[in-house]
């Protein structure tokens, strides 16, 4: 049974919202965990070499370091699930469940352009009709999968196992080493971007643009720290908290856990307030609303906020598939990033590789769609 924890849920959710607000107000960027992660494989060259992408590397480096430091020095038991200790027969995700879940989340979030952070915390906060549709889609299928995957479900033997039958459930020295190596790569790439200098023949405009890119680094580091802390404090890194909400059978059984509502609510509220200070996205009149991010120079600084209002097949299908993967493995990209940092083998070695494969495949599908559309228009 998952215990309702409204205080930590609201606090953690507010920190996640503060993470989104920091990126928005200082950098003009959107907090999207799935987009940040998938960019590493969908467009690796651009992510690692384009100065405008350096903030993403610094964000991920800071996120990994914050996560590791929190587990090592603040709360070593933060990722332990009390529900598992009280009942060794509680069904948990199998190896195939992690693989299937990771693939569906990777494919779905890339096709639908967002996950619980991009659509749920940021999109709904700016009252995007697309994001409301996306959240409705992945919540519906997430609830369907988590509630329906019971012992009578034909997929149950493949997606679930029992706690005492899992041999690789805890971090090992090798997986911790992998996590450390990945964090080191991110830190190295971010430092390279920070030390990057404009070519001697660069124009004044190009030099200023590079400086603006560098100005994004510190806010992205602060945002990443807030995001990491928000996830672990809210207990969204513990899968039983996710299942406790998505499994609607718990309402009848008296075990339903609405903590996720507090997390999403806290994140939404803080993020919504931040949009009231952005010109063009504020719901209420605000004479002090800004047209350029606080950390950027007006000459080349801008808000990179989506304005697309179209609810298309890719959005609905993609987010529905994401929800199925979320309900199958109990993970969305943010918590999965934290668990990978902590060296959890099934997440690091099964969920994430499958996520990247799914994201790459979705990108191929979108490329084919675009090619067909262009051919039709011509």
Automatic annotation (TrEMBL):
It holds the Pfam family Sulf_transp. PANTHER family: INNER MEMBRANE PROTEIN YEDE, SULPHUR TRANSPORT DOMAIN-CONTAINING PROTEIN. It is a multi-pass membrane protein. It is found in: Cell inner membrane. The keyword Transmembrane helix applies. Keywords: Cell inner membrane, Cell membrane, Membrane, Transmembrane, Transmembrane helix, Transport. One of its GO terms (cellular component) is plasma membrane. This is Uncharacterized protein. InterPro entries: DUF6691, Sulf_transp_TsuA/YedE. The keyword Membrane applies. The chain crosses the membrane at residues 20-42, 54-72, 92-111, 132-157, 177-195, 216-238, 258-278.
């Amino acid at each position: 049974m998952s215990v309702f924890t409204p205080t930590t849920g609201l606090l953690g959710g507010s920190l996640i919202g503060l993470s989104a607000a920091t990126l928005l107000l200082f950098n003009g960027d959107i907090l999207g965990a799935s987009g940040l992660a998938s960019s590493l494989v969908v467009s690796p060259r651009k992510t690692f070499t384009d100065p405008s992408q350096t903030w993403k590397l610094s964000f991920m480096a800071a996120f990994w370091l914050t996560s590791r430091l929190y587990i090592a020095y603040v709360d070593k038991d933060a990722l332990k699930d009390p529900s598992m200790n009280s009942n060794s027969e509680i069904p948990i995700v199998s190896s195939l469940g992690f693989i299937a879940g990771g693939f569906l989340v990777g494919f779905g979030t890339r096709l639908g352009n967002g996950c619980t952070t991009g659509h749920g915390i940021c999109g709904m906060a700016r009252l995007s009709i697309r994001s409301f549709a996306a959240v409705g889609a992945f919540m519906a299928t997430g609830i369907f999968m988590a509630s329906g995957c019971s012992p009578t479900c034909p997929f149950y033997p493949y997606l679930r196992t029992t706690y005492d039958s899992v041999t690789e459930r805890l971090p090992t020295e090798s997986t911790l080493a992998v996590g450390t190596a990945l964090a080191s790569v991110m830190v190295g790439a971010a430092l390279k971007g920070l030390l990057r200098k404009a070519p001697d023949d660069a124009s004044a405009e190009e030099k200023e643009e590079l400086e603006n890119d560098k100005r994004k680094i510190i806010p992205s580091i602060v945002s990443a720290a807030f995001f990491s802390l928000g996830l672990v404090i809210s207990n969204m890194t513990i899968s039983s908290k996710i299942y406790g909400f998505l499994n609607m059978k718990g309402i009848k059984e008296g075990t339903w856990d609405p903590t996720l509502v507090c997390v999403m609510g806290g994140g939404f509220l803080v993020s919504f307030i931040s949009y009231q200070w952005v010109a063009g996205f504020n719901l209420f009149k605000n004479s002090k609303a800004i047209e350029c991010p606080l950390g950027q120079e007006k000459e080349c600084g801008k808000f990179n906020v989506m304005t697309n209002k179209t609810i298309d097949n890719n959005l609905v299908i993609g987010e529905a598939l994401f929800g199925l993967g979320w309900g199958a493995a109990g993970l969305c990209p943010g918590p999965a990033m934290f668990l990978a940092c902590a060296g959890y083998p099934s997440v690091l070695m099964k969920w994430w590789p499958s996520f990247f494969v799914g994201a790459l495949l979705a990108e191929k599908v979108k490329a084919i769609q675009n090619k067909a559309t262009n051919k039709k228009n011509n």
